[in-house]
Specification:
The complex is a heterodimer of chains A (about 250) and B (about 180). Chain A has about 250 residues and is mostly helical. Chain A contains 9 helices and 3 strands. In chain A, strands 1-3-2 form a 3-stranded antiparallel beta sheet. The relative contact order of chain B is 0.10. Classes of the chains: A mainly alpha (about 250), B alpha+beta (about 180).
């Protein structure tokens, strides 16, 4: 027993079978030619009723699995066959010319298609024969080489000459890191000072007093450090709201 | 650079060098450009000479005419050995849909999509795109009339792919006794 499969994989499965069917027959003309030739039927005197029945039976088997476009191509041919069959049943009028057989247009198309189908077979043979010959780099021309892969047109002397003409590199100076104007420890001291006087202080109050960013950064690091040590508690009601710094409950300096 | 002794170099060897170095077929005119002193006719006779030489010496390769040019290719008896190597690019064999479409274009060119669909009885838009991407067909002109539809023709690469010298190499429809042939 098979488990129900999701719609997606069922479509893929159907597509797969459909490809196999198409591999067998290129289209309605191909199928029709197969029916005629495989039964040694005289193409100039096609028994339309018989062939129509066989054609319809063949497409009924695969119709549900065909895409709308492909199914349309087969159904159109089925309609043509039915129309020809109907015309054949009508009493023929004597004043009609011999070549106005309702089948003549279909026969012309079948022969034309068969001709090109045959040429396609000879092309396949020619392709197979050609595939046994290999050239340099083989069939597909390769993309042009990247600039980095092209051989250098440069001698060592030329390279040295260019190197010698370059200005001397600037003198190396030791890298100097700027000294921070304030440390985390200093800020910790200032927080203690402030929290001796008040039970809570808004963080921004502490930042506003110094304009430079380094003070804000150090104040914040000091807050985090104190919070980690349990000396202050940090509270914020909502995002981007005021950050309150509370004196720690167990703080002896209170 | 010194070109002393250059004139002593045989035309045959110049032609051989150019053909050897090329990955694609070259016309005699293209080969002749390698030297100011040789003509397309000289190239032609050099190729004949080289072909005989390769034949006598039983070389693994030969000079083959492809389209309007020539290319050095390995002989078919070595294909099996070459194909065992990973480095050999395999040719993609075309589908029947592609071959049938190409057959119609080769004989009817310049030809539009609708005429091809009329003959094959199926839609060919996807096949045409694929063949165009492979460089086997190209848009050669636009038809007069409504929408000025694109008309397709085969390319030089088409001849190369099937090992043909020209479209004349294709089978003549009158040689194919198809209408009397029963399907095997």
């Amino acid at each position: 027993m098979r488990l129900p499969t999701p719609a997606g994989s069922r479509i893929a499965e159907v597509e797969e079978r459909f490809v196999v069917d198409l591999e067998r027959f290129q289209g309605p003309l191909d199928l029709l030619l197969h029916l005629i030739r495989s039964q040694d039927i005289d193409i100039f005197d096609i028994p339309i009723s018989e062939i129509t029945a066989q054609f319809v039976a063949a497409i009924e088997k695969v119709e549900k699995r065909l895409s709308l476009e492909r199914a349309g191509e087969f159904l159109e041919m089925a309609a043509t066959l039915v129309r020809i069959k109907a015309q054949m049943l009508l009493p023929r009028r004597d004043d009609l010319l011999e070549d106005e057989d309702p089948r003549s247009e279909l026969v012309r198309r079948l022969l034309e298609y068969e001709l090109f189908r045959e040429i396609a077979y000879t092309l396949a043979d020619a392709e197979a024969e050609r595939a046994h010959h290999h050239g340099k780099g083989y069939v597909e021309p390769r993309p042009p080489p990247k600039a980095s892969e092209l051989p250098l047109r440069l001698t060592l002397e030329e390279l040295l000459e260019v190197a010698a003409s370059l200005p001397a590199p600037p003198e190396r100076r030791p890298h100097r890191a700027p000294v921070r104007p304030v440390t985390v420890d200093e800020k910790i001291e200032l927080w203690f000072e402030a929290l001796k006087r008040k039970a809570r202080v808004p963080f921004e109050w502490f930042v506003k007093r110094w304009k430079t960013r380094i003070h804000a950064v150090m104040s914040f690091l000091a807050c985090l450090e104190l919070a980690k040590r349990g000396r202050v508690r940090l509270r914020q009601e909502r995002h981007f709201g005021t950050l309150w710094v509370f004196r720690g409950e167990d703080d002896e300096d209170r | 650079m010194e070109l002393s002794g250059y004139s002593a170099v045989k035309t045959t060897r110049i032609v051989e060098a150019v053909l050897f170095a090329s990955e694609t077929p070259l016309t005699t005119a293209e080969i002749a450009r390698a030297s100011g002193e040789i003509t397309a006719a000289d190239v032609e006779s050099a190729i004949d000479e080289l072909r005989q030489e390769y034949e006598q010496e039983e070389r693994a390769f030969q000079i083959y005419p492809l389209g309007d040019g020539y290319q050095i290719l390995t002989r078919p008896e070595y294909a099996a050995y070459l194909e065992r190597l990973d480095s050999v690019t395999r040719t993609v064999r075309l589908s029947r849909a592609a071959l049938e479409t190409l057959a119609i274009i080769a004989f009817r060119q310049p030809v539009g999509r609708l005429e091809i669909e009329e003959v094959r009885g199926v839609s060919v838009a996807g096949v045409l795109r694929n063949l165009q991407e492979r460089g086997l067909i190209e848009v050669v002109e636009r038809a007069e009339g409504l929408g000025r539809p694109l008309l397709y023709g085969t390319t030089r690469k088409f001849l190369d792919h099937f090992g043909l010298r020209s479209l004349e190499d294709l089978p003549r429809p009158e040689d194919l006794q198809i209408s009397l042939r029963a399907e095997e």
